Structures are given as structure tokens and as C-alpha cells.
Amino acid sequence: MKKLICLASLTLFMASPELNAQRTYSLDLDQPLPPVRRGHLDLGGESVTGERVSVNNQYIELNGEPWIPVVGEIHFARYPAEYWSEAIRKMKAGGINLIATYVFWNMHERVEGEFDWEGDRNLRRFLELCEANDVRAIVRMGPFCHGEVRNGGIPDWIYGRPVEIRSNDPGYLFYADRLYGQIAQQLDGLLFKDGGPVVGVQLENEYQHSAAPWEWTYPGAPREFTVADRDVDVTHYQITAGGPENKFADAGRDHMATLKKIARSHGIDVPIYTATGWGNAAIVEEGSIPVTAGYAYPFWAPPEPSDFYLFKDIRLNPDYPPISYDADLYPSIPAELGAGISLTYKRRTTVLPSSLAPLIVRTLGSGANGIGYYMYHGGSNPVIDGHFFNEQSGGLPRINYDYQAPIGEYGEMRLHHRELKLLHLLLDNWGDQLAPMPSILPETNADIEPSDVDTLRWAARTDGKSGFVFLHNFQDHVENHDLTGLRLELEGGDDEVISFPHEGTFTLSKDASGVLPFNLGLDELKLRTATVQPLTVLQNGDETHSVFMTVEGMQPELVFEGDQAVQTEHGSKARKRDGVTVVTGGDSEPFHFRSGKQHFLVIPRELALTLAHADESKLVFADADGFPAPEGLELRTVGKTSIRVQVYPTTAVSQLRSSRGTVEAQSAQKSGFAAWQVNFEAIEPPIKVRRIGERRLALSVSEEGLQTDDVWLRIPYVGDRVAAFIGGELVADHFYFGQPWDIGLRKFADRLSGEEMIFVFHPVHPDVTYLQDLPEAVQAELAERSKPLLRIENPTAQTEYRTRLTFSQ
Q: What pLDDT does residue 7 have?
């Protein structure tokens, strides 16, 4: 076996009038593949429909094929039941193929022995809608959940019972057994074995690692946590690396095994059991997958560069060490990658949307064979019988659990929803090839510190011949810059050198990330290298369309092995040399070429971010949000009375119909695309806002009410927080963190027909603990005035327009 080579050779070359340093990074692909071990885990199962799930030490298999789950978290009890189906469809549109949801015990058994599974707490109905929308589910059953919920989900009344919670105390196990029995009734007939959507469950959460504060406390008193007395010394408030040795690890493993036995005794027999794997948390040894996490912008830690953007062997060296298990026995499945974060009274951390794609590229490139987002869809803490369920002692908002998630508290689909979708498309099409490929790390990675923004961060996953290069140019809490003069050289077992680009160097723009294929088989052609990221493959009759997108900073190039007959068009150029065919194009407009019945489309990243829908035959782009609907594609836009729709390829669609508005065929600005415009009649939002003194606003709705799908209210302000009331009852709240508050009003439509919504604002003080998290301009303004600041700008209301599109050939 060759020695692993990783050069950083500095040579000089002329590029425009300036001298730039070229840096070549090299990697030897001729590495032994780690063995795949099967049959050692008490996991897996078969459905009555004949489907099979199995788990080996490298990846999960679905019906005998490697499967990379893309997990998105939504809490059904934190979102109105009437919008569950829509929420599930929005998540599916983002590429989520497995939905995770918590069962918050204290919301269902508020009174001892009386369980409530109605309305927004109807777990069964939520899972039936997952099934109806063809999305699998994993149920996080507790008993302890955390999730920034009151007592971490433990009911108040259990505090006064003579039991040791989160232990094998018989009194506690009696309550846990009863809870699992109730959950089993909700899952009856919906488990994977019955042909249902529930493919897995999580047992407990962060056991012997973390806990939530009991709300049975007093101002100024030390926190008391929801944990057995035995485990107090090993318990953290939130996710933490390091910590003391766990003297009671055997008892922890025994408790987790006991919970699994209780679950199975109630018929909760699923192929996948998961348990928290980070920070010495206890798992069911060889009977659960230890899931991992990564939060680059936590509210519980100082704002400093994290190591979550450094490539490593993430399976054998998971994030948040130490771990309590033999990592070589399990696949790496992250369950809590921070797609957002909570705001707290003391911290107002902002998660940059641009941080998510690099985080996922790093995690996949490091060897993970699953991706899980916490949260993927935000929500609102319920108020039940006048009782708040937020974690008040932790300073969490009473209602708001938006979490800055890809889909927000009121259902808005944000930029990182669109960015992450592009990576999920790649996994959907090539995940079965990627999963068996281990990660190979260049030697330069070992010397990179989080603050180093000059060294390329990259890795490869390969079977020794083909594979993917993962690279990014992002680091949290530092200023990044473009990396120029880069070149990659991969050395194979037959002494071949695979180069990115074929000749010369490339640039990777600030904050950019990408996944580049090498020796990728595309029907009869072999794509030797590409400086573009694969998206999907379409099939139209006997013709295929392989679609790629640009990576910021890189000039698009596709290099095919051999002398290929390529027909270039729409901005593409081809040249043949050194036994390969090189096709190039610009990075600002799509370009297209073909070889026989194989078509190739490369689209700029900006166009890719408008991808509203992808299926087996077509791509639909729109300057609007899109998600599947019964018999069509639903599009939504806010404040715009028209939507431009483009479809590729033109052969896939001849006619477009819209359930609302009028449709006009448009001249396609891009060859190979068909285009239409959907026009709506403008509707003025029936909203009036008046000021009441210096700290209050009152919103009223005209007599005709909200006649549209939704009306969005934007409140720009600088202050500490704002709370919204209807009829004197708190219905929404917001902590200021530099962004305006956007509220979808449809949730409150019935109550607003006869009541005003009153907003109460509070000023921000110069000595607040979260000052470091606020925009620099606000910090400077507070420092200059040395007194509280409250500025309420004029709110604006915008109508949401929706339509359902159907396509025909």
C-alpha cells in the first residue's frame, strides 16, 4: 500500500497581472476498505409488505440497498393540527425522507393517570398523515425528552411522588411502562412491521449526559435537574464535550436496556432503535444506534469557533466526546445537527443560513451515513388550560419555538431549506453508492485549527476507484475569505492521477461548499472528474438528463474518459486531449450538451436555489416556494402578484394549469426550458395597525376577515422583546436578535375576527448579557446613549398568494 500523500506545494504562476500562490493538495485513494460487519446488532426487521430494514456497522440498508436517511425534526404538539399535512409536504419537498417527533409526556398526562391525545396532541393522526404523504417516521418516546420543554417533558406531579426518576426505581418504571403502553396504542397498526410509517423509536434522551431544570424552583435558587440523584455529578444542562468519568455507566446501560424491553412488551417492535451517543450518554449496547449531534451556534456556550467544520473520521471519532460505546460496531448517524437554535433571555445567538450547507458537506465527507436536523420545522409552545410548557427557568420564550429552522414557526420556507434540498437531492440519487464508501482524509486536515481560514478543508469518500470529493470554505465565528490557486490531485491504485481541475487551478469562494464526483458512471459514459456538484438524473423516454450545479468560485468543467462524440450547445465548449473529453461552460447561465441520448445540464447555483420541484422526468424552477400537493405542485409567494415558472426539459411539459390566477406562456430565456407566468389579482391585506403610547401596537382585521391563505405581518424593531396578546391572553412572543419579527396571521384568524392583537414591547438595556450577540450597530448605539433603547418602526402587512399547478405533456 502506498504511503498517504498530501502535498501543499507552493509554486507561482501568472494569473492576470498579479502573482498568486498555487497550492496543490494530494491524496492517495489506494486505501483498504473497512470490513462491513452484519448480524451483531439487535436491530432490523421486515414488514408484512416484504420491505426489509437492516443495520450493519457502516450504514443502514433498505430492501438490501444502502440507505442514507435524511431526518427532519418537527414537534406535532408544537404545530396546529390543521396544518400538519402541509408541514409534512413542505419537509418532503426539502428532501426529508424520515420525520422525527418528540412525545412530550407532560403535555399528554397533565393529570396523573389521565392521558390526552386529542387535537394538536393527536400523535396517531400525525403519523397517519406521514403515511398518507409517503414519509417515514421515528418517534422519540422519552420518558425524558428535553426539547426546551418544561421539565424536559417530565410531568409536574411526578416531582412529588416517592420515586427516583430516570432510573430502574420500580415506582418510576411503573409510570414509564404506562406511558409506553399509551404510546403503543397510538402506534398500533402504524409500525413498520405492520406496513406503517414508523420505522424507528428513540429511547430516552441524553441519558446520563444531560437534563432539564425542574420548574419547581424559586428565583435565585440553584437549579435542580430532572435526573436521578445518582447521576447528578455527570449531568450537564446542555450538550457538552468532556466531563467526569461515569461511575454508574453499567446502571445506565441497564436502564436503557430495560426501556427497550418495556417498549417491546407493548408491541413497539421496530427495525431501528436510537439513543443519544454523545458525551458518555448510555445506549442499549448492540441494540440501538448511538446518534450524534453538532451545534455551531449554541446558546449554552461562548461564541467561539467550533470544530464542526473540520473533516475527520466521524464514525470512530464522533463529535462531543467521550463516548460510552465501541464506535466500530455502529454506523454514524447524526440526529441533531443544528439547523437553527433557540433564543434565550441571556443569549440571542444567530445561526447563519450560509453555515448549514458547509456543515452537512463536512459531516457527510467525514463519513456520516445519515443526516438529522434539529429543528427542521419550528413551532410554538402550547398553552393548555392556562399552563405554559416552555422551559421558563432556562429563559426560553413562553410561546416561540421558531428555532431559526429551515421552515419557521408559521410555516415560512427559508433560504437554508432551499440550500439543503440540493444536497438531499444528491443523496437521493447517489446515496446508495456513497454509503459503502469510507472517508479518506488528507494529512493537512490534522493541522487545521478552527481559526485557520487559509487551508482548504476537504476529504474524499471512495471505494478506491470512484467516489466524491467534499470541500468547503466556511468557519463559524471568524471572517472567511476566498481561497485561490487551488488544485486537487487524487492518486489511484494504478498510478493514475485524478486532477481537479483537469488543468490549472480553481477558486473556492468565501462560505462556499461543494461535492465533486470522480469516475462516476453515467450510463455508457464515465465522468472522470467535474468541478460541478451532481443534482439529479431525469428520464424522458429513452433519453436521460444528468443535472449538475455550479460551486461558487469554480469554473464549470466536466471531464469524460475517452474520445466522446459530444454535441455542444447553449454556451458549452468541448475539447479532446490526453485521452479525455473536456466540456466547459460559464457559471452565470445554464449550459447544455449531449452525447447520443444522454443530455447534460449545468445550472448556476442561483438558479438551483429556485428549484421548487424535482421528479423522475422534470425540474420545476419558480421564484416562489414549492411543495407537493394532491394532484399537483403547490406554490406560495408573499407580497408578489406573479410567479415565474420554468420547466426543464421542454419535452416533459407542454401545458401548465393553475388553480388560481391566470397563466401566460413566456418566451424562455434559457434554451431547453419552457416558461410561464402565473398572475394573481392583487388583494390588499385587511389589516390596520395603530400605536398606543410608546410601547404598544394594536392590530385589527376588517370585517371581511382574512380572505386569503395567509397574511404576513413584519414588525421591524430594536428592543429586548415583544409579546402579542388576544383577549388578554399571550398568543405569541419574540426575542430581539437583530431581525424583524415575521408573523403568519392565519393561525389567529378566528380570534382576530372580533378582537385586536395587542403587541407590548420592552426596551433593551446597555448591560444585558446578550449584548455580544446583537448587531454591531446596535451595540454601538447602546454604548453611546448608555440608557435603554426601544425603536418600533412601521409594521407592514403582505398578502400570501397560493396556487396549485398541474402539468401535462
A: 38
